[in-house]
Amino acid sequence: MRRPKHLWTISALLAFALVAAACGDADEPDDTADTTDEDVVDDADDADDADEPAAAPEGMELVLFDGQWESLWILNEIFTVIAEDGYGHTVDAPTTSTAVMMESMPAGEMHVATEFWCMNIPDWCEAEVFPEDSSVEYTGVVFEDAVQGIFVPRYVIEGDDERGIDPVAPDLQSVDDLAGLGEVFEDPESPGDGVFYGGIDGWESTEIQRLKLSAYGLDDEYNFTSAGSGAAFDAAIVSALEAGDPVLFYYWTPAWIPGVYDLVQLEEPEWNEECQAATDQALEDEADPSDVGPEVGCAQPSGEVGLGGWSGLEDEAPEVLELLRAMDGFGIDTMNELTAFMELEEAEPDEAALHFFEEYQDMWRGWIDDDDALQRVEAGLRDRGADI
Asked: What pTM did the predictor assign?
């Protein structure tokens, strides 16, 4: 407490002054006369202030990509804490789409993407991200081995004795086996038809799923449906999983649903360059799914997911790109744990981020090489209630 410290300091100095006056020569000038209580208090405050980190400089307003999925929300919250508390930036993350990000970031109207799924937008990444003089810098790999594909619950194939669920498609292994199973994966909005939950509106991968359903010859038997938000998409899938109902859906890792529920990824024809080229052309032409052929039917590539930002930050806020470079190697296991925490604890993304700061202190402290910035982040986290 400051007040007791100050009072003790003042009392001690006054006592010393009285003793010195009594023992000294009366004709000697009293040097203590120029020292006031206010001076002593000011000196003590200066000593305390010396322990405070230097105030952050006024930063810029950073716009983050928010394409509406859990891992991205958590990474954005982690980035925001460090950028705002450590470096004095303000951060905004408006809900948007991959298509908008692809236009906005090269123009400097959007500044940071904590996840680049270049496997789904390869042409854009080749043009805007990977060249040495690119308008967008790829700063590193945030997830080393992300997976995406078409899933069903394991109980659809094997049943679940504990839940009293019998297998309804015991021979299901690949997308080729889905023909004739539309009634198993019945559309609640259209009895008699099957339904495939293909993703979130505005995602390039959602349009790819729409094309693939037709390329596999399943579009006459299965209705394609997408959701307007990540929350709505997850809710539709989880509702079926909790009820023990058959459900056919596109998903990916890292994410909490594959981490919590026992799922089986269906086999698809192996990805190849010809399939990718045909898919890219169909997307560019905005082709009607009914017009595409089997050449578009193959698995989507899995692999690394990157992160990065607008190259102009090198001049306007180089510490932002340095932070993004330091986040290289974040890890899919780390994110699986965070997304599971978020869902199982019914936590918001900012709470999952605080959980990260508490549980992975060696990781994030290693991202910040400015001592004052590190102290500001620590202080900000304590203000947010983090136990660090």
From this structure: 0.75
| Structural domain range at position 138 | 61-145+304-383
Tell me the pLDDT tens digit for each residue of 192-228.
999 999 999 988 899 999 999 999 999 999 999 999 9
The full length of the chain comes to: 388
The three-state secondary structure class of 294 is: helix
Residue 195 CA to chain centroid, in angstroms?
A: 29
Same domain, 41 and 174: no
Based on the fold, state whether residues 308 and 211 are members of the same structural domain.
no
Residues 6+ apart with CB under 8 A from 349: 70, 73, 74, 76, 77, 342
Residue matched to tokens 């307003």: 61
Please give the distance of CA 332 from its chain centroid, rounded to a whole number.
11
Helix 371-383 crosses helix 70-81 at what angle (to 10 degrees)? 120
**Which residue spans within the chain are E strands per DSSP?**
61-63, 90-92, 112-116, 136-153, 186-187, 190-200, 222-227, 249-253, 263-265, 303-310
Copy the structure tokens of residue 314.
Answer: 């090198």
